[in-house]
Amino acid sequence: MGKTEGRGKEWHGHVTAVAVAPEYRRLNLAKRMMQTLETVSQNQYNAYFIDLFVRSTNYLAIDMYKSFGYVVYRRVKGYYTNSSGPDEDGFDMRIPLGRDKDKESIEGHGEDNVILPEDFPTFR
């Protein structure tokens, strides 16, 4: 489901994947999993925010994450490689946690906030 990564004010929880079998959708399971990751990231790991990446064309997922309180922080050009066509942009979506009282983790957010993959930070 997720992990923690980063340093300093970039210390955060990261959603690796969320999947719910079709027969169990519409039961708020994804929301409950996300809330659990947020709670653990905040209370156990003292993270500043949670982030996740989603294809910029995955409108259903984007709307779901927005309904949970996430915002599009930035667009990463060509984040998803595609062997049968052009690479696809990804959205870095975030939700600030309690430690980020001034919401610095989403400052300047939006789909027009664009970075290239080579400018993307790596967390070790």
From TrEMBL:
Pfam families, per the entry? Acetyltransf_1
Question: Which Gene3D superfamilies does the record match to this protein?
Answer: 3.40.630.30
Which top-level group of life is the source organism from? Eukaryota
**Family annotation (InterPro entries):** Acyl_CoA_acyltransferase, GNAT_dom, Mu-type_HTH, NatB_acetyltransferase_subunit
Q: Which residues form the HTH Mu-type domain?
A: 1-37
| A single GO cellular-component term on record | NatB complex
Q: Which GO terms describe its molecular function?
A: DNA binding; protein-N-terminal amino-acid acetyltransferase activity
Task: Provide the alphabetized UniProt keywords.
Answer: Acyltransferase, Transferase
Membrane-spanning residues: none
- Residue span of the signal peptide, if any? none
Domain N-acetyltransferase as annotated: residue spans: 1-98
Give the protein's recorded name. Answer: Uncharacterized N-acetyltransferase C16C4.12
Its source organism is Taphrina deformans (strain PYCC 5710 / ATCC 11124 / CBS 356.35 / IMI 108563 / JCM 9778 / NBRC 8474)
